[in-house]
């Protein structure tokens, strides 16, 4: 294990254990904060902004977002190793938000997880330079790429961003 990986910091807004819908087997999902898209149907609007936000639930204000180290995240992820193994190929999934928009943190977290023998996955829109994606790919077992619309105009209308770079990246990842 490369010890310096464990000290890399990132910003997340949730960690969800025992997911069975975000990659193979039982998984722990780390939701990163910050996303370049603004999908009209976004089910995690609190993920979009990089800055911390206050959300009021049942009259109780709650801060959304926290800064964490890779070490802190992996301490939680490791707790379910037994379930990852028993469910087949379970492990860690990075979701968001958009993990490609925190490349240093995402790369370090994926790399360190793999060094511990934990299977890794990312859920991504693919909206980033391919050079960023290439940094992560050596440490990713499963890429779940969510292309919001194949039509460029519709994509922009519904997400505020063009899909040209996303489609090109999808081709390159599939090669
Ligand atoms: S890509 Fe995901 S997190 Fe970002 S705005 Fe769209 S639905 Fe929300």
Question: Your description of this structure?
Answer:
- The radius of gyration is 16 Å and the shape is globular.
- α3 links the parallel β6 (91-95) and β7 (119-124).
- It has helices at 70-77, 81-86, 103-115, 130-136, 152-159, 164-174; strands at residues 9-19, 27-32, 53-57, 60-64, 66-69, 91-95, 119-124, 142-145.
- The strands form two sheets. Strands 5-1-2-6-7-8 form a six-stranded mixed beta sheet.
- It has a single domain (3-174), classed as TIM Barrel (Alpha-Beta Barrel), CATH 3.20.20.
- Helix content is 30%, strand content 26%.
- It has 175 residues and is of the alpha/beta class.
- It is built from six helices and eight strands, in the order βββββααβαβαβαα.
- It binds iron/sulfur cluster.
- Residues 35, 37-39, 42, 44, 47-48, 96-98, 125 line the site of iron/sulfur cluster.
- The site of iron/sulfur cluster has 12 residues, from loops.
* Number of helices, counting only DSSP H or I runs of 4 residues or more: 6
Enumerate the distinct ligands. iron/sulfur cluster
Estimate nothing, just give the exact number of structural domains: 1
* Text of the CATH class: Alpha Beta
User: Uncertain runs with pLDDT below 50, 5 residues or more?
Assistant: none
What would the average pLDDT be, to the nearest integer?
96
| Approximate strand percentage | 25-35%
Helicity range: 25-40%
Strand arrangement, major sheet: 5-1-2-6-7-8
Number of strands: 8
CATH topology: TIM Barrel
Q: Structural class per helix/strand content?
A: alpha/beta
What's the assembly state of these chains? Answer: single chain
Element pattern in H and E? EEEEEHHEHEHEHH
CATH architectural group: Alpha-Beta Barrel
* Rg for CA atoms: 16 Å
End-to-end separation = 30 Å
The biggest beta sheet is recorded as: 6 strands, mixed
Can you tell me the overall shape?
globular
């Amino acid at each position: 294990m490369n010890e310096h990986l464990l000290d890399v910091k990132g910003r997340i807004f949730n960690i969800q254990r025992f997911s069975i819908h975000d990659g193979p087997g039982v998984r722990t999902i780390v939701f990163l904060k910050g996303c370049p898209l603004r999908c009209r149907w976004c089910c995690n609007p609190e993920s979009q902004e990089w800055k911390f936000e206050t959300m009021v639930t049942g009259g109780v204000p709650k801060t959304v977002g926290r800064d964490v180290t890779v070490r802190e995240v992996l301490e939680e992820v490791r707790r379910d190793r037994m379930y990852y193994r028993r469910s087949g190929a379970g492990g860690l999934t990075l979701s968001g938000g958009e993990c490609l928009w925190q490349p240093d943190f995402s790369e370090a977290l994926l790399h360190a997880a793999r060094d511990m023998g934990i299977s890794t996955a990312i859920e991504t829109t693919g909206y980033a330079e391919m050079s960023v994606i290439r940094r992560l790919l050596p440490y990713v077992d499963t890429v779940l790429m969510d292309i919001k619309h194949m039509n460029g105009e519709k994509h922009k209308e519904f997400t505020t961003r063009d899909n040209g770079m996303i489609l090109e990246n999808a081709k390159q990842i599939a090669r």
